[in-house]
């Protein structure tokens, strides 16, 4: 497998769900803006119906420098040969600009997440060996076993909605050499009540799914803290809110804890509005 060099991505990048809903012209305009602002990496999920690898290919085709990271491409929608073939083409067409992030997502019926990922990687490795075309890949990982798999069978791990303490734990498991990319949500709102209201609305899906709840409980949050919309401590740890400088300092704590890269997700954008102004503020605060 290919290595992921944080120097290709920079220390901070942008993560958003918004690109799942924009028309192609809007995608092109928004990713151009990110590139012009100086961002070196763009991360996006696969949740709303757009196929992950073709989506990545389009974004790469309309930009010149920015790296595009699937975060994540789910296992179930594609057989390993389709994933390998698409990722191989992107690696050839856009050298060092695409990273394949893989995740179990909704899972495979009757198979544990770890077994599903191991089996999928077995098939990808066989294909890569057959055509001598290793692919840069990272794995969505939270628990110790999946993080160990990301260390041993990928270039590293991608985490989502975790606190700084988890980043330190993940670095210990991954060791010094594997890549660790951490997503974190932010909100430019200084009123605590309003900030937590917006953050709780954002976190509703994650506080109602068993695997996310298990993740939060492993991190030391009690059942009382993960119920009723989430305690203030949980909310404040998972969504950094406040003035831009304060938010930036809290994001840097992930780097200090061992992250190679932090993908920043801006929340609280009204429907029909764009996060471009917030991305610009973050660029002015975070980028060299």
Question: What descriptors fit this protein?
Answer:
alpha/beta, eight-stranded parallel barrel, about 50% helix, globular, F420-G6PD/mer
Overall 3D form: globular
| Second rung of CATH, namely the architecture of one domain | Alpha-Beta Barrel
Strand-residue proportion: 15-25%
Strand order of the largest sheet: 1-2-3-5-6-7-8-10
Strand tally: 10
| Number of separate helices | 13
CATH topology category name of one domain:
TIM Barrel
Q: What's the alpha carbon Rg, rounded to whole Å?
A: 18 Å
3D structure, described in words:
The chain is an alpha/beta fold and 288 residues long. The protein has a domain at 3-185 and 250-267: Luciferase-like domain (TIM Barrel), CATH 3.20.20.30. The chain is 48% helix and 16% strand. The protein contains 13 helices and ten strands. The chain has an eight-stranded parallel β-barrel with strand order 1-2-3-5-6-7-8-10, surrounded by seven helices. Strand 4 (73-74), helix 4 (80-93) and strand 5 form a beta-alpha-beta unit. Helix 2 packs parallel to helix 13 and helix 3 runs parallel beside helix 4 (80-93). The protein is globular and about 55 Å long. The two termini are 30 Å apart. The model has no long low-confidence stretch (mean pLDDT 94). Residues 24-107 form the Luciferase-like domain. One of its GO terms (molecular function) is oxidoreductase activity, acting on paired donors, with incorporation or reduction of molecular oxygen. It holds the Pfam family Bac_luciferase.
């Amino acid at each position: 497998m290919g290595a992921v060099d944080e120097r290709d991505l920079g220390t901070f990048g942008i993560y958003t769900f918004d690109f799942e809903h924009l028309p192609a012209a809007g995608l092109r305009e928004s990713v151009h803006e990110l590139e012009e602002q100086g961002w070196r990496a763009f991360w996006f999920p696969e949740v709303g119906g757009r196929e992950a690898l073709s989506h990545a290919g389009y974004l790469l085709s309309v930009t010149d420098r920015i790296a595009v990271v699937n975060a994540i491409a789910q296992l179930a929608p594609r057989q390993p040969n389709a994933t390998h073939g698409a990722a191989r083409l992107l690696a050839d067409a856009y050298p060092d600009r695409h990273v394949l992030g893989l995740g179990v997502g909704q899972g495979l019926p009757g198979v544990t997440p770890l077994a599903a990922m191991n089996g999928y990687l077995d098939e990808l490795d066989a294909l890569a060996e057959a055509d001598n075309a290793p692919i840069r890949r990272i794995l969505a990982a939270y628990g110790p076993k999946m993080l160990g798999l990301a260390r041993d069978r990928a270039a590293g791990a991608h985490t989502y909605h975790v606190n700084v303490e988890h980043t330190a734990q993940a670095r210990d498991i991954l060791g010094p050499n594997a890549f660790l990319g951490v997503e974190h949500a932010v909100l430019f709102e200084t009123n605590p009540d309003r900030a937590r209201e917006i953050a709780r609305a954002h976190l509703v899906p994650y506080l109602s799914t068993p695997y996310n709840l298990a993740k939060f409980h492993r991190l030391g949050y009690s059942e009382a803290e993960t119920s009723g919309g989430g305690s203030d401590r949980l909310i404040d740890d998972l969504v950094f809110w406040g003035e831009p400088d304060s938010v930036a300092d809290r994001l840097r704590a992930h780097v200090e804890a061992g992250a190679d890269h932090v993908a920043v997700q801006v929340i609280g954008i009204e429907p029909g509005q764009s996060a471009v102004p917030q991305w610009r503020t973050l660029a002015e605060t975070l980028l060299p």
